[in-house]
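Hi R.,

Here are the chain sequences for the assembly we discussed:
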Amino acid sequence: MAQTIQHEISPFLDPGPRTKANSLAILQLSRDNLLPVYLQPPTGEVDGYAEGAVVNTRYGSFPHSTMIDVPWGSQIRASKVDTGSRGRKRKREATTDVEGVSREGTAAGATNEQDNEASVTANNSGSATPASVAPTVKQAIADTSGFIHILPPTPEVWTSSLPHRTQVVYTPDYSYILHRIRARPGTVLIEAGAGSGSFTHAAVRAVYNGYPREGEKRRRGKVYSFEYHEERYHKMKQEIKDHGLTGLVQLTHRDVYKGGFLVDEGKSPEADAVFLDLPAPWEALPHLSRRKPRGFDVGEEGKKWVSPLNPKKSVYLCTFSPCIEQVQKTVSMMRRLGWVDIDMVEIANRKYHASRDRVGLHLNFDRGVNNSPKDVEEALKRLTEIEERTRQHAARAREGGDGDVEMESGDEGDVAVKLEDTAAEQPQESSSSSVAPWLEGRLITRGEPEIKTHTSYLVFAVLPREWTEEDEAAAAAMYPLGKEQKVIGAVDKQLRKQERREQLQQKSGGNSRKERRKQRDEKIGQECAPMAEES
Amino acid sequence: MTSCIKPNAWVALKLPSGTTKVLQVTPNTTISLGKYGCFPSNLIIGRPYHVTFELQDRLPGENFSRLRVVPASELYEEVFAEEEATESSSAPAVTGGSNTTSACDTVITSTDGEEFSLVDEKGNVVVRSTREVLDDRARQTLTQAEIEELKKKGSNAGKDVIAKLLLSHTALNEKTSFSLAKYKLLKTKKYIRRFQVLPLDVANFATWQLEERDASKIMDLRAEMLGLVGCWANVHYGGEDVYLEDPKARTDQGEEALVPLEKDRLRGRWLVVDDTGGLLVAAMAERMGILYPLEEEEGESKPEATTSIPTEQTPTATSQQPPKDTDTEMTDAQILSSKPEKKPKQPKPRPSDFAIPYSQSNTLTVIHSASQPNLSFLTYWGFDATSPNHPPHPLLNHLLTLTWLQLLKPELDTSYSTPPLTATQETLNSWKPSRRGNFHRKRRRFARIRHIVDATRAGGFNGLVCASTMDPISILKHTLPLLAGGAPVAIYSPTIEPLAALADCFSVPRRTAWTSGSVPEVQGLSAAELERWEGNERFPLNPTLLQGVSIQTSRARRWQVLPSRTHPLMTERGGADGYVFTAWRAKPAEGRVEAKGRFKKRKVECAEGSKAEVAGTPASSA
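And here is the predicted structure of the full complex:
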């Protein structure tokens, strides 16, 4: 292939057809239980496992070797792994694996908090040199039961697998935000408050249009991310590197309230879109002005004001704040700084689960089955049956002669037993003659048991580009007035009638259909011509 | 998108009444905004988007209004005045005089606490509101005729009319601050002569179509849903353009000269089923960066064209300029006739008929149910799928369309299965130009359709996006085998029922019955056969082909944010909520796979149940 790939493309942007060693993969344990893992090539015994690195979950043990170079989405069978003897041996040996926080550690350590049932054995011991370990790797043997699926990383699965380090911007929010702030391939985006990185990943995917190349003039999509919290900054920095996003995300450790948004020593990122996930967005807003705002202590003393915004385009902005007081202050500041189209929304997302609502007397006594009558007819049928039996029983008792109280009560119990018998007999008959068990009952949808009723308020705004007298004069010279011929837009009746009259007059001069078509073609030609010129 | 309003661009004009007018700004025309007035289009061409323009009073001798850019400080002056008032009310003895930010306007402000007053240009309080409850009878003393008269000679962009109306309202000083603000807003909407020009991108177009045009045409696809579908289907820029080499097929060569399909080069491809008239395709194309022409490239390509074209005789590089898709009868003739006129420039080597104009990466493949795709909304972005001689557009090389017939039964499709025409160069030369053009056009079409159908049937797509009126089960039946492992699926539906039925195909009991190996129909089938299993009543789809099935909906609730009047909007658009089905394509392991854990016991029961039922079927049918 003649393609010049300078960077290894991030697995988030192009995972390729199969899983790769030393790359991120997401293990789907169950529907909503996702586990990020960096797959390690089998180099020898790791952490006491003869198979190399192993992921242990409640669904079985999965050596990395069974998950490398398989198609994405593959179902992976659990393997028979000796977890018992290893643990004891390991405890005695455990000495130096504190050092060297490997990539595996970051992903795995975090998930332990999230799901304590899934314990991940990480290769923390960078000290274990391959030379000391036998190079032979034990071939994994498939277990009889247990499986997981292996998924390529996307911002969505990454977000759902994230531990709650800080407030996470979830998919319903970021999908809407990115749509509204026009984050598209080629957009330069400022993000302040990188936080857990969920928004960063989604933003990179949205603005990505190729990795930057040496000596290339073309401006490519990029995310300028700012984080104040030092620990989170380092974590994010490592994550960006591990995920192959270097060159697409530029992370800066800074307090943007004071330091603003300039990068590379006073250069403007020329952003087209801004996302602020900060506790006090109004303190950062003055930095995002086209001219030095009066009355604010921003920019460097004595230096020329450099705006971090793209001078040639309208800039879209979104702030993300959980409290209404924050919103009010932010909106007030936006108005003062000249932002327009200010719009505040809140996103309510709900998940639904489709299932079968199984109600009926004839159904199996299975879990989730309601063994009560499914309709009035069924209830009526059962009541009639009971009534019939009681009557028969009463008649029998009367025939028997002496009506003993104790006897009667005993017989009633008998009836009940008989009824139950018939109820138990029925299911076998019906299920063998009618539908499959997964087709029984009515299909229903039910909301998830717990819903997020509030995440944050989103405030959107637009800052149009500056328009000076000179610009106006230049535009006026380029597009002079006085040649207006037609009226477009809302044309009232009178005007339309007049136009029509003029048209008819023209036509009465012997215009045929041919000529009209010619006119139309000319018009289309005029419209198409500038388009062709442009591109 | 673009930095300023270009000639002939489609734009959305936002009027004070809240309505949007979508039109193409043709140079040298007059744009009429109905009751708000009219102005020449040349006054907005070349100007920036999003600024607020005000129609000024007509100058003597001109029959149109000139425009003025309204600064933001003026747009918000009432809010600022209110804010200042609330601040100053805590610090007493500040009169309303300082509240006016602009000296020439009559402004409603509140001077103390929540009360409002009407201040004239010198800052004197003209009317003051009290907290008395207002009764609803109209007490406007101006008659309709008088208002019309005012409007006609109305100056100051309608602001005078509004002030007069307020002053003439007898009960104005009885209004509470809230009703006064509302009254003012109502009148402002009606009379102020301002507007804003917005770029007609996907978001603005969708909002306009949904709220002001026919929402059913776009299947009530709201912005939240567009965002969700795009994100869950992981649609993004799919890599640099890669073009197949020109096979340099001679005109007497047939099928054998076609470019062979190279599966390894197919990357970053998404499948789309779109019944929203092209909105979904536009939204996805926007996410992939193939909806708008690149501005930077525009600037670069112009000087290039004027200087010199690199005369490459052997175009071996894979990622070079796409072969021009000239599909007209007259191309030969045009080239011949244009030759003597222009300077003796080296003509660009024309691609042969079998050159594939489509990129192998970063493409959208649209499967449509009619013989032509309905992508009419793409005309707003300068793309017409039916135009034979299209000016350059990124979608030309990245949008592939085919019918369900071509996908599923290509041998029945005439344009796919009819072998291409062949003729020797001598015969060709003896033909009329029009006949020759037709000959080339047909051969080109054949090569294109062959490529699209074969590439689509080769599968390996990176995702599926769907907003269709067709049953999603039937769509998935035929598209699931085409998806690469781990590829996401995102299906939009205005109502939840079709998606619930789809999700039910992947329910746990159904999946368990399938994997327990008790389904006689699929015994002994290979993995590939199972992927393309045609389904039956009890298993419409192979339930192991999707993982992480989920249905969700999202709704944005809008708020009004004003000083001490912040609350959610009272009414919003109702109608279809819109739901999104998401899942990932799984590659099931071969053979019987059992789950581990506490579910085991139940599963055995289930399997037995289905066995019993299977055993019973022949008996009941007999």
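Chain A has 14 helices and 16 strands. Chain A touches chain B through 133 residues (CB under 8 Å).

Let me know if anything looks off.

Best,
T.
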